[in-house]
Amino acid sequence: MWYPTEPTNACLRESLRDLPYEELSCVYPTLGKTYFDWEYPSKGVDNALTFMENNSWLPIVTTALYGLAIYAGQRYMADRPAWDWRYRLAAWNLFLAVFSAVGFFRTAPQLLHNLWYYDFKTNMCTHGMTVLGFGPSAYWVYIFGWSKFFELIDTFFIVVRKKNLMFLHWYHHVTVLICSWHTIVTQNPTGIIFAVVNYGVHMLMYFYYFLMAIKCKPNWFNPLIITVGQILQMVVGVGVCIGVYSWAKEDGCHASLNNIKAALLMYASYLYLFCEFFFKRYMIKAKRTKTL
């Protein structure tokens, strides 16, 4: 149950599904001045959520087609020269970096507000629409879920440039797409934490890739920073899921137990894979280089 406290109770509103939420632009008028009209969810967003609820097959079919596209693409490129799409790749990474930065700065204020005024259990057991509100933060969390579809294009650049396609890469894309869809459909309140952290890490990661593509990366911007950020993201994911797991079993807690279980398995597997990647790239490789 959501218990508004002063001074936020004066800014209570109702969403399209008659759920209470706090209008962040009312609580923080200065922040509200930075919002655009198109960032406020309308009936169209509610229709989009209804579409997601009624079409659970879409992420499954998409990921299956994604797997087939990888196979077909690698077969096609096997006896052909790699495509030199460096500047196209740079433009794509810059777009994703800017997109992630906007998403981060739109969703982070809502999360910080929630954690400041309410304890962690209240945040994790309240309906997702109440936790997210019905302003720009909600809009950018919904967009976050859909963005996992167009992020699949990352793999296209790897295939046509004939780079090494790691298991971690395609496994991450498949599982995060499905899990993000389910988190939004179930209106799981953990979604805002996952979105904010993911937006933040991707903001840095894609900007790093952009700098690499245009060969302008400064020496201090070590890839180790990105990998550590990714590992910390997985630590947060595992920690949140473990923290919410027992509460999700209680009556009145809106957190979906099935979603928490799936997210925990997903984040735990990511944590293992990223730690393995870190060890092989930065420990074993560095040791071999030093020996040589």
Automatic annotation (TrEMBL):
This is Elongation of fatty acids protein. Keywords: Fatty acid biosynthesis, Fatty acid metabolism, Lipid biosynthesis, Lipid metabolism, Membrane, Transferase, Transmembrane, Transmembrane helix. It is an enzyme of class 2 (transferase). It catalyses: an acyl-CoA + malonyl-CoA + H(+) = a 3-oxoacyl-CoA + CO2 + CoA. The keyword Kinase does not apply. The keyword Lipid biosynthesis applies. One of its GO terms (cellular component) is endoplasmic reticulum membrane. Belongs to the ELO family.
